Amino acid sequence: MSTDQPSSGQATETALELHDISKQFGATRALDGVHLTVRYGEVHALLGENGSGKSTLIKILAGVHEPEPGGSLTVAGRPAPLPMPAGAFHDLGLSFVHQDLGLARPLTVLENLVGGAARGEHSRWRVDWRAETVKARRLLDSYGVKIDPRTIVNELAPVGQALVAIVRAADELRDCRERTGATSTVLVLDEPTVFLPEEELEFLFDLVREVVASGSSVIFISHDLAAVRTIADRVTVLRDGKVVTTATMADVTDEQIVEFIVGPAKSRELHEHGGHVRVNRMVDRMVDGSGPPQLAVAGLRGGRLRSLDLEVARGEIVGIAGLLGSGAEDIPYLLFGARRAEAGQVSIRGRPVPIARHQPAAAVELGFSFIPADRNRDGIAREIAVDHNMMLLVLQRFHKGGRLRNRSVRLAAGARAEEFDVRPRRTDLPIGSLSGGNAQKVVLAKWLATDPDVLLLHEPTQGVDIAARAQIYRTILAAADEGMSVVWVASDFEELARTCDRVLVLNNGWQTAELLGTDITPETITASVFAGQHASAARTTSP
Amino acid sequence: MSTTTARQSLLVRRGEQLALPFAWIAMIVFFSIKAPDRFPTTNNLGSLLGTQSALFIVALAALLPAMAGDLDLSLGFAGALGAMCMAVLNTQHDWGIVPSALAAVTIGAACGFLNGFVVVKLKTEPFIMTLGTGALFNGLLLLVADSNTITGVARSLSKWTYGTRVWVIPIQFFYALAIMLVIYWVAEHTPLGVRLLFVGKSRDVARLSGINSDRIRWGSFVAAGALAGVAAVVFVGNSGSMAPTAFSPFLLPAYAAVFLGATTIHPGRFNPIGTMIAVLFLATGIQGLRILGADDFAQFMFYGITLVVAVAGSRYLRGR
């Protein structure tokens, strides 16, 4: 290809090299002297827990974050600028496919391919759709993707959408190689398998192999060990912002990789004996599981959840852990009637829940409360005052003599704000003016006001500062001591370890593990989450 | 430092709240100086409040779906259909004026019910759907009237609109005032009003809080249609006849009033008192311009400019 490169031999050796990359966010060292080498023509997996620094590293490559001075980046043997100027990665031969794929879903595949192309091939004034269709068809064919370019993206299965996004990125890279004469390019796939059914992953792997054959290297970021095992040549594991290992896949077992991800058992012990206990369980609670369960769930299916059996005793706090796409995040929505369930039997305090036509209004009536993850969209009405947000569910109590006693509402809200330590105490302010933590205290006060039997939580401390977090934990635990059952879905495993009496681990829609009492630590949860990938894979492939 | 900024922001907020009332007063002063013998008279006051009562009620009708986060562009035609049916029933089918008027309100409510069905039940965009149902109502109206202007509606109706006065103010203004107060009461002093606020401002939060937002939205469409029917009855009472194109032009000034009203009293919220002040502002402007000799074109320009300035102004204030 290109002949004007002095060190083309070396360039084919290394497609991309990051050297001594560090990044500090406030008190957190997100990346600490990271070194990453991607060889020409390899699939390089990047693994690590949430918060291990993977996404920070990728964002530095994409020019979203600035690394600390001192690091360097080499692409195809040539030094590249750091921090990366906005949009510069295109010309360096880098391309990214993020988890959301970045496609315009109401448009056709063709429109997405044409619209995404920032190349000067076609006229600025006129798009020749017929020629573009032919070209798109040829492009898809060349990667072995059998999709009609006239299809609306939304009508494609998730795997088809992922394929289109990858083909588009690969085409950009091919274009870059032709335009700049670069000898190698790098495609970054950021968790592309999360939403894909196991049995369709093969299509994606085939495409990745095609992309490699066409002259690119691939950085493959995933939580899915089975997928990494299938497609990757080498792996780099990050933990707490540091590279733990870089190894050839053939040289490491899955067990070793999991240990790299969560840290060796030995270091965990040292951690605890050194008085540096990371997990600080809030209380050792006694839950009386002898009576009938307060919440009983059998065969619940819907969203990504394939089947869930669950019984929660009075006063019990059950955590549910799983990676994105495992179905864990569907559970509270299904139980609350906010998402349609396909099957299952649910009862609360012995009363059956009509799950097929379940509605939030009925759920509240039956004794459910639900704190959703997306606070700003689903949790609070930002423009409305704190007192009305807090008392929305119990307004009827203040409706006396045909009139809503607004002063009583305000007084009651003021007392609750005192009790929940909402700052400032001004309940007449729009709730949107409160900090995330204080707004969440209001949301909690709102949902505890009905004295629910079952509290459903989805990421209840997202965007909440540490002080407010502790306050929220204490309040929930106190309510559980009074007999309220809690189903707690969170991706913060330390949070689950601190608060839960029992933790279920989900993978690909199935429960794969159950942890009890002192067995619950962030490390055991993480290990179960990763280990469960195999169990669930076995389950889906053998009917 | 923080107290001064707090005070400043309070000042800004107060200024925002009172901008429209002050503009209204300034306008009254202006017209009174320009036409001292014709504008500031009790006669003019009665005429001003009387002639704009139908508009006032249409604006309150438009306010209800707006409060629920919807939009009803068919209200002008829904009211006109009710008015036309009333005129036809009264003049050609020997219906009494009271049952004819009730029929108008019922037909308005039925139109609102249909809007609620297509928008809420079928989960469609209110903007385009009510534009469509509006065209349907207009077609029905032409069918009912055979495209004619219906004259000779019972004169007794006028007794209930401009024929009876409290001091100099025609009784029809008090109908509108009463409706406004009912909406105000419901919005401010009932649990339903708070729920309506959540449905309008954060529909996802409302739904996840167990509020039956579909019923509230649908109900607001029905109530809006019924109010359009009431406005139509008042309108026919004033004119004694009904032309096919007579009532529907109220839609634009009604929305101008609703949006202008959302910049005052409780800025950022569609609110009944703000709507009333906006109607009075528009009515005063139109009346004043007419007294100064302006033509019909000035009326449209005034409505149009007010609507554009009100919406752009409130967006600017909120984004600031």
Please describe what this structure looks like.
The complex is a heterodimer of chains A (543) and B (320). Chain A is of the alpha/beta class and 543 residues long. Chain A has two domains: 10-263, Rossmann fold (3-Layer(aba) Sandwich), CATH 3.40.50; 295-387 and 453-541, Rossmann fold (3-Layer(aba) Sandwich), CATH 3.40.50.300. Helix content of chain A is 36%, strand content 23%. In chain A, the strands form five sheets. Chain A has a six-stranded mixed sheet with strand order 6-7-8-3-9-10, sandwiched between helices. Chain A has a six-stranded mixed sheet with strand order 16-19-20-13-21-22. Chain A has a four-stranded antiparallel sheet with strand order 2-1-4-5. In chain A, β4 and β5 form a beta hairpin. In chain A, α6 packs parallel to α7 (201-213), α16 (436-448) packs parallel to α17 (466-481) and α18 packs across α19 (522-541). Chain A is globular and about 80 Å long. Chain B has 320 residues and is an all-alpha fold. Chain B has a single domain, classed as Orthogonal Bundle (ABC transporter involved in vitamin B12 uptake, BtuC), CATH 1.10.3470. Helix content of chain B is 77%, strand content 2%. Chain B contains 14 helices and four strands. Chain B has helices spanning 2-34, 42-51, 53-67, 75-92, 97-121, 126-145, 156-163, 171-189, 191-201, 203-208, 213-239, 251-261, 272-291, 296-319, and strands at 150-151, 165-166, 169-170, 241-242. Chain B has a two-stranded antiparallel ribbon with strand order 1-4. A two-stranded antiparallel ribbon of chain B has the order 2-3. In chain B, a hairpin with a 2-residue loop joins β2 (165-166) and β3. In chain B, α7 (156-163) packs across α11. The longest helix of chain B is centred in the N-terminal third of the chain and has 33 residues, at 2-34. The mean pLDDT of chain B is 90. The A-B interface holds A 336, 338, 359-365, 370, 372, 377-384, 388, 392-393, 395-396, 398-399, 403-404, 406, 446 and B 188-191, 193-195, 197-198, 201-202, 204-212, 268-269.
